[in-house]
Amino acid sequence: MAGQALIDHGRFLDALGIEVELLIDASHAAPAGTPVPSCPGFTVGEVVRHIGGVYRVAKLWMTEGRAPKDWQRYPAPGQSLEDYLRQGFDALLGEFAAHEPDAYAASWWPADRTYGFWWRRMAHETTVHRYDLEDATAEPITDVADDFAVDGIDEVLSAWFAQRLPMLGLSGTITRTVAVHSGGHHWIARAGPGVTEAWHCSAEEAATADGSVTADPMAMYLWTWGRLPLRNVNWSGDDDAIAQFWSLLRLATK
C-alpha cells in the first residue's frame, strides 16, 4: 500500500466521488449565506468556495511540485459556486487518473510525498466539510465506514498534530501523553516544550499514557477535527494532558 494510509487508496477515490455530491446536495438545502457553526466565520457558500479552492491548490502541488502561490480563489464572473467547485473537482480527478497512488508528488508532509497523499487528503477534506454543511443545514448526517473514519483519525494525528504543529512553531507547555482509542486501533500523542509527535501503537503501549480518549470511529473522527465537543468522547486520566491535547488539535486543524 502506497504512502501512509490505513486503507486501500481506491477507497479514497470512491469516497471522494460520493462525498462531493453529498456536499453539493447539502449546499442546496439552505441559502448560501447560512452560517456554518462548525466553521466559525464561514457560510454555506464560503465552504463550497473553499473546497473548490482546495481542489485547485492540491492539483497545483502535484503539477508544479511545490506549494502554489496563486490559483483561482473565486468563481469567474457569472460562474456559480457549484460550477466553480465542479470545475476544480474535475481537474483534480483528471490529475489523479494520470498517476498511480505511489507515484511521487510534492506535499507538505515529508512522510508521504506521493499522489496517494493527495487522494487521502482530498477525501477527508471533502468528508469533514460535507459534515459541516449537513450540520449547518439540518440535513441528516451521513456516516462513513468505520475503517475510513479510523484512517481519518490516523491522518489527523500523524499529519496534522505531529507535522503541522511543528511547522507552525507550536508545541505544548507541559510534556504529557494522551492515548487515543477507536475501532480497535490505538495511538499515542505526545506534546511538550520542543516535542510534538504521534504514532500508532499497541494497546499495551497506549495504557502507559497520562490520559486517554475513547470513542467509536465516527465520533472520534469528528472530535479530532473539532466538530464534536469533549462530552462526545470518553476520557480519563490527567486533566491537563487532555486539555492540552484538545487545544493543540484545534490549532493543528484550524
TrEMBL record:
Species of origin: Amycolatopsis sacchari
Protein name as it appears in the record: TIGR03083 family protein
Gene Ontology terms, MF aspect: metal ion binding
Pfam families: MDMPI_C, MDMPI_N
Domain spans labelled MDMPI C-terminal: 147-243
Coiled-coil positions: none
GO cellular component, one term: plasma membrane
NCBIfam families: maleylpyruvate isomerase family mycothiol-dependent enzyme
Domain Mycothiol-dependent maleylpyruvate isomerase metal-binding: 23-134
